Amino acid sequence: MSAAGPEPARAVPSGTSLVGTTAGEARITWFRAPGARRVLALGHGAGGGIEARDLQALAAALPAAGFTVALVEQPWRVAGRKLAPAPRALDAAWTQLWPALTEEGVPVVTGGRSAGARVACRTASALGAAAVLALAFPLHPPGRPERSRADELPTGAHEVPLLVVQGGRDTFGRPGEFPDLPSTAALVEVPYADHAFAVPARLPKDVAARAAESGVAPQPLLGQPAALDLLTSSVAEWLDRL
Q1: Hey, CA dihedral for 62, 64, 68, 69, is it positive or negative?
Q2: 97/17 Cα distance (integer angstroms)
């Protein structure tokens, strides 16, 4: 059960554009900031589109801080297909639509949630992205930690800056499961949030039991609006520091 409280208001776009790729048309929904310092381009996951709560929260919050947000729908999603294609096809489409993201004339930060984060990580260096934002990075399939995707993270000595924002109870990889990150990378935890950044209405029973046994107070439980505020403010502060 998610915490009580309203979902954030849907962000109001300033325009859309269609970009041709070899896989079909991709769609960019723009949330422009006057005099933007950067563009943050965000792709969606394999199980949903740009309506995801984290993508919408960033699109609503960041333009006021001077950052244009571009929410990108891959061609398979625009065409109404149910299943995402193979990673190679996703990477190719992202690479082909990238020039449209640079037309704003400011540095572009690449990113996305879940499968979209993987695409951004895999292509960032080749595209010359200013940095990478990975939301709910699927470090491994649920229950299969041995199938780690940590090698996709841009964490080499000469890689671009990276911010990972991860739910504390994300079954695709909890924050403590991530490898040690270099000084060019950072990880922000949204306490108790799941893969979709939904937070529970009550403290999980296993957490409450451990706290009772140890006598150590658990992390405070955030409501849904506060959890999204943590996410958006963390991203805004990171973008400011770049």
Answers
A1: positive
A2: 11
Question: 186: Cβ–Cβ under 8 A, 6 or more apart, which residues?
Answer: 162, 163, 164, 238
- pLDDT of the chain, 242 residues: tens digit per residue: 444 445 556 788 989 999 999 999 999 999 999 999 999 999 999 999 999 999 999 999 999 999 999 999 999 999 999 999 999 999 999 999 999 999 999 999 999 999 999 999 999 999 999 999 999 999 999 999 999 999 999 976 557 999 999 999 999 999 999 999 988 999 999 999 999 999 999 988 888 788 788 888 888 889 999 999 999 999 999 999 99
The two beta strands, 15-21 and 24-31, are antiparallel
Kindly report the number of other CB atoms within 10 A of residue 96's CB atom: 16
163 and 132 Cβ atoms separated by less than 8 Å? yes
pTM confidence score? 0.93
